[in-house]
Request: fold
Amino acid sequence: MQIRHNMSLHLSLAARNEMSNEFLYRFISPPGDVERYWERLRLLVQDSKVQLSRPSRLNDPFDCKTLFSVTDATTDDLWEFLESTIIKYGGPQARVLAEAAMRVAESDPDRAIEHLRRRYTEFHVAELDENGILCFFQSPRDEYPEDLLMWAHYADGHRGFCVQFRKRVLTESFICKCVQYMDGYPTLKEVAAHEGEGLAELFLFRKSTRWSYENEWRLMALFTQTEQGLLQLPSEALSGVIFGCESDPSDCERILEWAQHRQGPPLSFFRARKHSEKYRITIQRAIEQPTKS
Reply:
């Protein structure tokens, strides 16, 4: 069996609207376990299955943590919060601890707040980790995903790949929305208002403004919906693959061959290339999905 393609020939510019912000992008970089990386990439290309991450394993120590602000909160606000959260979930022992915290607050408010935050995290850390997340990049202003830093940080120094997804399919099939970038933690009142099913969304879709250059979107799904962490996406969710400007031709060949056996609509393939005059990359249409012969 031969694959009808040539990675060095027959390149043409992709139409600008082919890669507009109707798409989301996920950069792919090999972890320490390279063999597992290639197997997961094969499952994505062939079967539209993707590995979710646990919130507790993300690289930002603030990300997905149950941190909240108590600025302008009164003692009554604190007690109402305790009644609706810690006491509700923690049983009689939690009530004793909460009452002790309120007594401490009378003489040492800072100590009481830290006690409250610590207990709240203990109750909810496992709950948040029941949700798996998948992170995407949305290119601003209908542009290609040409951000040099994103390719450098998340695609193995431009040696990796970027996978294109149809945003509409993801938002209609899962909880999938843009991350909110803020300078401060959610307020005590925000947390109390989201207690219950909305709590995971409050903490999993909020990050520091220092990360805003990533233009991140996230998909959230329960691990119980997956097969050992692998989430089955609708086959039409996956749209294309972009090869990094430093990607190895043999790696590209491997992905193209997998596409021969894809279960779902055909993919488009693109190649990132270094600009001839500027510190930037351009993305060009490479080939259509190869056909069997």
User: Anything to note?
Assistant: Confidence is low (pLDDT under 50) at residues 1-20.
